Model the fold of this input.
Amino acid sequence: MWEEYDMKKLMAAAIALALVVFAFAPVRADVVGGQNPVKATIRTMGALGNGLAISQSNPLDFQLLKIGVAGVSLAYSGSEETVKIGVLYFGEDKYRLKNATLGNGTASANVYDNETLVGSISLTSYPKGDTEIWAGTLTLNGTAYNAYVIQAKRDAKPVEKAENVKEYCTNNPEKCKAVMKAVGQILCDPATDGNCRDKIKTFCEAHPDDSRCKKLDLAFCALNLNDSTCRQQIIQACQLNATGSNNDTNVTSDACERLGNLYEKKMGNATGFLKHLPDWYNKVVEKSQETRKITASHAGAITGQKNEDN
Amino acid sequence: MNKSKNAKNALTLALVVLISAVVISGCVQQGGVTPGGSTSSGSGNAPPSQLTQSQKDSQAAAAVDAEMTQYIDNASFADIENQLLAQG
Done:
């Protein structure tokens, strides 16, 4: 009798549990479906930092600034798109930045208070030591300000670096292979293996400190100087090169030269730029000047040869 | 003997149901998780394929805001902490 009662209880418990599971599972699925998960990942970082806005008409009328503006990748329902957007804090007031443009060391956007256009901001970054300073103008509610922002130190997350590597290997399969080969063994051949880019992405997301992944990320950065996080990475690599702490490679040299050339172009706009130049930058400029001399003398030699031939 | 067998069967069934519950629950939760470095959140009543521009802007702005908190606000606190530690 006792055993029969116990067995009935067990059977009842099992059936009840089964009912709970089958009733619960679809509810959980609906909840997840209803949440519509959207994956937002930073793809291009523009200005990110805090600083000051100083009225152009009254230097004592100033306010604290905090800004973040970026290209954000939104992935949902199998589709992906990038939105360029930002957030601006002017003192305690929060604004949204829309219609943002992120150039090579430049960032501009319209300033919105909810859905109302209330101004605009335009900034250019300048290297000061190992930091970038953004300087430009902010117009807000009819008042014009000079704005200065210190770029925050930011490391790209493993998922961002892995995306960078995938993009680089997709667009430059041969170079991707060459970069891996220069550092070590190739993970796979992106030129022949259709799944290679995804394999590299997965590997680099799991192993962001792998030397091949780091070099591929740097190679991506050299071609994407509109990303402030990339510029920071290049500066760090160039500094290591300048102090001899890093084994110089073509990838690092190329990245330093590209960033150096970008900064060199800014010289005409900023008279104070030539002061306190970082060591790595001087090295890049010296190398660039040497290359120009060699190229000029080579061209001269060819011209002289032609003249002699004539 | 027969009763004991039934009891065993019931126990086995209960175990199977429990494992199923854990597996189903795990699978369902995985659908809502996103890898590190990203944000995942609801988007109101519209299905994902029909996100409005405003909803997209909100999602993207939230991601930027999170970066500001992490790299500006938290970094500032860390700087202050380091300064205080340096002063002893």
Notes: The two ends of chain A are 121 Å apart (CA to CA). Helices of chain A lie at 2-35, 158-171, 173-183, 196-206, 211-222, 228-242, 250-266, 279-309. The first helix of chain A runs from residue 2 to 35.
